[in-house]
Amino acid sequence: MQTKQQKRAEFALEQIANFGTPVPSKSVSFIVSTPTMLLMNGLGQTLAFLLSRGIDGNEGKVFNIIKEWLIKEQFVPEAHNLEFLKKFNSLDQAEYLKAQHETLKLLEWLKRYARAFQAIEGKN
């Protein structure tokens, strides 16, 4: 049985491939800055910002990673983006804070892998 930390790490490792190999510097910079954005603005505003920037760039990729993780962890049911945000915004404060905390922990793994694969691929 995997620990929660192992599950986060495995999921983040699978998802980092969405950015390409090696992970481009611009993508790494954005991924590294996302936890700070979340802490400063809250998860709801961060999700809205990420989605507003489009689904094809770094922002959209990070939005989809967070969305998929929150669905997987059963904070909200699977839904299209608008419905997902509606369901997310209807969480009570305790669940919202749990989701935010869980997202921060996931982003830490994503950040580690982004840096690792940029560095490893850059040295080869």
Automatic annotation (TrEMBL):
InterPro entries membership: AF1862-like_dom_sf, CRISPR-assoc_prot_Cmr5
Recorded superkingdom: Bacteria
GO annotation, cellular component aspect: cytoplasm
Pfam family, one: Cas_Cmr5
Keyword RNA-binding: no
Record keywords: Antiviral defense, Cytoplasm
Record localization: Cytoplasm
GO biological process: defense response to virus
Main localization, broad class: cytoplasm
Keyword Thylakoid tagged: no
Protein family: Belongs to the CRISPR system Cmr5 family.
Protein name: CRISPR type III-B/RAMP module-associated protein Cmr5
Organism: Leadbettera azotonutricia (strain ATCC BAA-888 / DSM 13862 / ZAS-9)
